[in-house]
């Protein structure tokens, strides 16, 4: 089962870190936990080279390592999730670009490429030596033409550009915004430990701390023990989390005496032994982040943002762009309130799941909703924003539904700038009620995109993510089936999903199709693993002719099937890139020659330039396709947060 | 077979009475009479149990009455006179077969079942049934549930919906054009009540909650951007390929709005009953057909439309009945108009990352692998995809 994923991860690593790392990763993937020596043996690579490769992998957090104690051998194992996440880089950068602007996207792109980065180094890259490379150990230029190379390309040009229009304070405020939104997180030392070892360590700590007799059996003790573990886990996690208060550069000033446990934790927080907040310049503004803060991109947070976007797209399909925009804003407000896609440490009160879902008020939504969107445009009877100044007049014109000439005029006038903005209280109230109207539409829809918290009149809204996630998955499966097998197959699949197990005659009558056609579809879908048939023999002989076949559609199974196929498709797409490069090899080699590089314009012939362009387009298309497939993987695997196929 | 004596006047009178009563009742000829009911109808001249029984016996002998048992009480039902005449001419086998067919009523009976029950030689059964059919006593019908089984029922009966498959079957065959027309009609009807139409107008900009600087020129999808790129003669323009932060397929700039939603919870969308009422009262469908359509049948069509993503259910929770509205963007297609839009309706629904890559539709995907007969480098589909953009 993991074969497709392993293949994909190896291709991804080969693409970004080169063959050596890929080979090591492949060996680890095949054999599980290994020490350096056994690893070298299995991979048939000299020990020294293994160490180099491992370092590279470790910098990108593709490998986990753990030594039980000082002097004990260190075991290495692969980090599936991070390895896969290599494929998600562009999607994340795109997302950040959408929300936080281009600078932030650049920054995130760089951090993604580096795995993790010190704030000081980042600042150096942006402010002091815009043209220089970051001081990571990875030789990105060697792989210039790969996906990462492309990111790198833009990073170079725009960081040069950024040096002009991004000031130090801008840099830090962007970074802080990213940290606060959760896109970036602080890196602690524990980030590199396999979760099982981490669990063990926590258990050990709890035992030493609270159960000196080492007895944790018995129902009462057991539950106490579990509780203590969760408390410690949460505490450690919070220690590792970024907070505005603790991680600013001028932290020394804020530090309160007697806050001893925080001082203690400082040591844990900082990677590489520098104490946090020891070194900083006094003259910098308080908003400056400590140079020693190490940050990385939080993929689960980004997955959540991807989910929001996907939900917004879904809503757009059914209710149009304006309503979807409102929905997107609601989702974004909620994002900040959910700790993670799935918080395994959340208090377990499953009987009242509803109350654990976060909620947002309409004014929160209004705050981040793009003010240029005409909220009234897509609901009948709702006055457009811009016509509010017209008062009843505008409303009347909307209601006059026979006279299209006047309406046309109205929509033209909406483009005119308004003097007021939203300063007026009355306008604000109207805007809020318009938002509410959109949210009500979302609620009314059969997919129940959102929900009012209590009865009518409350202005708090929540979104039932688990249920909607199921809807999203179903929609994705439907889209795949529709594109592959056509409309009628989709009809049959949806019918079976809704009605459960049915015999082919019942399927035919429900779908209003000829039984012959239905049979063909059922067989085709069964052949491709979409449908299953349960045999129900009428007698003991179990003859096929005397057997009923009950057809059914297993969402989970198909979801898994498509996920594996997507992995495989992604791997093939990535593998096609070198093939394409091979086709244009002579031109590429010429373009990379030292005497040509930088002066392509005069040194290359017109057909060569054309060929080069063609190749770039092909590669670009392939990479875009990988991104699209990654979006699908995110949807099928990550949105629910319950997937465990990637844990080590 | 000996000729029966002529029917007595009293018997005839009783038969007429019974027939009249049966025809007046709802069940028609299926009406069964219990002893008391028959007695009530017996002509005055032959009152009393003694006279009543010979009369019934006489009618039964003439095959005008058919004895049967219901809840362990003897009862009778009437037969048409000409059928009775024909029956009296039948031999024992034929009579037996006829009675079984008769018992099956509107459901009909399968030939093999007949054989099994009567225990008569297959060849005889087939010959006999052929004879009965020629005499217009029984007819062969097509059972929709078992189209290959030869099924018989009485000549004068109309097969039940179970057998014919309901309104959507025409002589045992699915009437697809009727379903299509009906679907179209329903979409048209529901569409009129689901969304308010408006002249196309633009929303200011697409969903971008954070007001970011809008100068990046990557608004279009990858294809548009590529076209732009092709136009540039300067290699430097493409030398640093702008990594497009737009691989997703939505967001094609400002959206045109042509459908307005009605405010939530202010509208009752048509229910299956309402749609049925519309269909049966409109003259778009032949009146005889329209009269036949039932609400469950219409519901069936609606269900199919929901599965086809044409209609969606609204409401249905607490408070107010549920109704249907068309999915946004679904258009009514005038009759006789070719369905050229196909599956591309609604853009976003058309495929996803997987199915748009060659791998998603690859017929030999399972064989594909490194070192396998099919692999990424030898793949013809990729070559075609990269070349032709599809």
In terms of topology, how is this protein built?
The complex is a heterodimer of chains A (648) and B (390).
Chain A: H1 3-17, H2 19-31, H3 36-43, H4 47-59, E1 63-66, E2 75-78, H5 80-85, H6 89-100, H7 102-114, E3 116-118, H8 119-128, H9 147-165, H10 168-181, E4 184-186, H11 195-210, H12 219-240, H13 244-247, H14 251-254, H15 260-269, E5 294-297, H16 299-319, H17 321-335, H18 353-356, E6 359-361, H19 362-368, H20 392-399, H21 404-413, H22 425-444, E7 451-452, E8 460-462, H23 465-485, H24 487-499, E9 502-503, H25 504-511, H26 515-527, E10 531-537, E11 547-553, H27 555-583, H28 585-592, H29 600-603, H30 606-638
Antiparallel strand pairs in A: 1-2, 3-5, 4-5, 6-8, 7-8, 9-11, 10-11
Chain B: H1 9-24, E1 32-34, H2 35-41, H3 49-61, E2 65-70, E3 73-78, H4 81-88, H5 92-104, E4 109-110, H6 111-118, H7 122-134, E5 138-142, E6 150-154, H8 161-164, E7 169-170, E8 173-174, H9 176-194, E9 195-202, H10 222-231, H11 235-239, E10 256-261, H12 272-281, H13 287-292, H14 295-307, E11 311-314, E12 323-326, H15 353-356, H16 380-388
Antiparallel strand pairs in B: 1-3, 2-3, 4-6, 5-6, 7-8, 9-10, 11-12
InterPro entries (chain B): RNA_pol_Rpc34, RNA_pol_Rpc34-like, WH-like_DNA-bd_sf, WH_DNA-bd_sf
Protein name (chain B): DNA-directed RNA polymerase III subunit RPC6
Keywords (chain B): DNA-directed RNA polymerase, Nucleus, Transcription
